[in-house]
Amino acid sequence: MAPKRKAGAASGRPSKRTASGISTPVSVSEDQDFSMGSESDPEDHDVTSKYDKTVEKFSIASSAKKQPPREGHDAASHLFTSLRDLSGEELKPDHHLRPIWLNATSGKVVLETFSPSFKQAQTFLINIAEPQSRTTHMHEYKINSHSLFAAVSVGLTEQDIIRDLELFSKSKLPESIKDYIHRNTQSFGKVRLVLKHNRYYIESSDPSVLQRLLKDPVIAPCRVEETDELRTDVAPKMGQLVISGTKEAAGVREAQAQVARQVKRPEDDDESDDEYGGRELEQDMTDLLRDEDDDEEIDQVHSFEIDGTKIQQVQERCNVELGLPLTEEYDFRNDDMNATLDIDLRPNVQIRYYQEHALSKMFGNGRARSGIIVLPCGAGKTLVGITAACTVKKSAIVLCTSAMSVVQWKEEFKKWSNINPDDIAIFTSGEKEKLNHKAGIIICTYSMVTQNTRRAHDSQLIMDFITSREWGLMVLDEVHVVPAEMFRRVTSKIKTHSKLGLTATLLREDDKIKDLNFLIGPKLYEANWLQLSEEGHIARVQCAEVWCPMTTEFYTEYMNAAGNVNKQFLLSTMNPRKFQACQFLINFHEKRGDKIIVFSDNVYALKKYAEGMTKPYIYGDTSQRERELVLANFQMNEAVSTVFLSEIGDTSLDLPEATCLIQVSSHYGSRRQEAQRLGRILRAKRRNDEGFNAFFYSLVSKDTNEMFYSAKRQAFLVDQGYAFKVITHLNGIDKMPNLHFSTQQERMSLLTDVLLQNETAGDVEDIKDDLFSDRNVARNRGRKALVKRQAGTLSSLAGGESMAYMEYARGSKTNKELAKQRNQFFRKEDRAKERRKKATASMLD
Ligand SMILES: Nc1ncnc2c1ncn2[C@@H]1O[C@H](COP(=O)(O)OP(=O)(O)OP(=O)(O)O)[C@@H](O)[C@H]1O
């Protein structure tokens, strides 16, 4: 079995992943190179070390028993003693039927995927715990206060959670876990943030909670009313589980049938009469699958009004500091104030079961809950957003990261729904459309609505329209890349009843992701990548890390450059053996009929590789026309099977022809970049061909820092169940004709060229990982940098977008001046570009 890789264990000892996804230590001699990455890593998922680390952070109860490793045993086996589970509790007699191991100290839950009740347990766990790792045989989840908040916000009660955990757990649920669940659920769902008649209210059925809030020094000044009295209204009755936008769609029936087919009762082969006997288990499983239709009717609700401009202060105070999260639910079916939008899914639309499932988390009680839905790249987040709009049937605002994305959303709305095209407007720097009817959909870029500077007249009119009215739904696309500060501006300016965040990787290296919890809402659903690929919704991918030994001369220089990160980076990227591996793999996959994308973050390397192999390449400076030409050829010309891309191609590139990725240089340890790059081949057109596999290779120079970063980068994908095969030798490479750098002279000449490069040649391309294409963004973000480069989406490479690469100079005052400066810059570059263009065009002929 190929080893699954990740950074070294926090203990400082190297580790490797087994098929079960549990890390076990390996000896240094067995896996020597892993020791490079063995420094303490906060993201490490090594089971044993993480238990130790989380003891202080996550103390369900200090009384929880913790088993010390037994002498003479490895670090993990004591966790799996025959009669006890991770919590130290005795196993139930029918534990083999129950799929969950629980650790009472850390909140970690290990789920066996081979258990007969795996599917039911997975459905339950996704609601109450954060998935940490989902490999073939074992899943790891973690119960924490956020996940319990999400559970309560999708309608589960403390009793539901405890009962079902008890049901699936191999041992009796420790009291400490019950206490923890009790403590963390009792305050959830107690207070709600409600928008009524364009004004915000804090609402609760328990007036004492509101009185407590009104004594809080942060919240009290946010109240707008003079009187001390609370408002009291009759509480609305909660509805049934219905996704009205989908109820007519054939896909819903299919999805329900599919879910029903998947749900199998655990084998009733254990007739024991104890309290967890087989029959009772079956009964409990049946209960588990019940509709959430037993919501209690609430007689009265109490509320007080708060200042709309201080919403975030109140949210942050309640969610983060008071542990009393504000839930946001929109009773859209009883909203008579806002006009109804005539929109439904087209009758032939088939919603996939996981899309349906995700939406049921949002609309499970007949209201629209705000929160985030996480689906892998290419799994169909757009349709989820559209179905949400069809369900709410009120005006909706969709926020995207680029102008091209805005256009794509508009097209998708027209494709999947029956909306009158006049009821969709787009608002970007290039297009400013108005809504003509009372209700409609407006799609815009984040940058357009968050711009702080003076706007053009037409733009200001639209902005006034957006901010002066109530919206039923706000869809926030790609929530993981948008800075939290931008969300703050969006959510404070636009009054919306519900928010839906969409993303593929709820990952940020800057640790800002937790802000999304109160700015948007809890994570409502996260799909299982491996499961979707097994089902053919996204492509199956073989991932491999190819270890390329450094040539002696390159390694000597690498060691001499200790402390000079850029130089070392360039030497390891330009390692001739890596170049050869890349050449070999391209040759191999082109012969198989694959279409290949080669990624290099470093522009010097990108050009050297691509020009050396006479392949087309695109990076930030490539002109729009040239991009179009290269991509069109890649898609349609059989003679062009490989394209080299810089970091600019990481996201939103929609090239379903691509079936193979090769990564020669990348952005240090970014897990998100790795996942996004993988996303480029997940939507491969050929994914449902029999036996089809896409390929993802990371070329790594052996015994260099690249090995450490590579392991870190893979952590997210390993946690999604992807196995990275390590290839130490490419069979047949030695016999390959025309292999570059096969003579000492060629290698020395390359080395001389690399050493002659100045420091900055070792930089990764300076393109920020946001995708904003409106020029306003640069100004919005301040002018700290003298020159700021900014990427457009790769979809912009396809030609629809006016901007993909811009430069802004500090101190420039007007757009005109900016344009002039850009023009001057580009004029200087023109001649050089013209030469490049001719070379590429002649190559493509
Ligand atoms: N239920 C469905 N039935 C048929 N096709 C679907 C369905 N859902 C999504 N698709 C198709 O899957 C493809 C990917 O969808 P979409 O672009 O929404 O993915 P995504 O999750 O937004 O991906 P990315 O994160 O890469 O942008 C599209 O071609 C879309 O039409």
TrEMBL record:
Q: Which Pfam families match?
A: ERCC3_RAD25_C, Helicase_C_3, ResIII
High-level lineage: Eukaryota, Fungi, Dikarya, Ascomycota, Pezizomycotina
Family the entry assigns: Belongs to the helicase family. RAD25/XPB subfamily.
Q: What InterPro entries does this protein's entry cite?
A: ATP-dep_DNA_Helicase, ERCC3_RAD25_C, Helicase/UvrB_N, Helicase_ATP-bd, Helicase_C-like, P-loop_NTPase, XPB/Ssl2, XPB/Ssl2_N
Which Gene Ontology terms of cellular component type are present? Answer: nucleotide-excision repair factor 3 complex; transcription factor TFIIH holo complex; transcription preinitiation complex
Enzyme class label: isomerase
Ranges for domain Helicase C-terminal come to 580-734
Please give the PANTHER family that the UniProt record associates with this protein. Answer: GENERAL TRANSCRIPTION AND DNA REPAIR FACTOR IIH HELICASE SUBUNIT XPB (PTHR11274:SF0), RAD25/XP-B DNA REPAIR HELICASE (PTHR11274)
Q: Spell out the PROSITE patterns in the cross-references.
A: HELICASE_ATP_BIND_1, HELICASE_CTER
Locations listed in the record: Nucleus
- Record keywords: DNA repair included? yes
Q: Which UniProt keywords apply?
A: ATP-binding, DNA damage, DNA repair, DNA-binding, Helicase, Hydrolase, Isomerase, Nucleotide-binding, Nucleus
A single Gene Ontology MF term assigned here is:
ATP binding
SUPFAM superfamilies, A to Z: P-loop containing nucleoside triphosphate hydrolases
Tell me the Gene Ontology biological-process terms attached to this UniProt entry: nucleotide-excision repair; transcription initiation at RNA polymerase II promoter
Give EC number(s), comma-separated. Answer: 5.6.2.4
Tell me where on the tree of life, at the top rank, the source sits: Eukaryota
The entry's protein name is DNA 3'-5' helicase
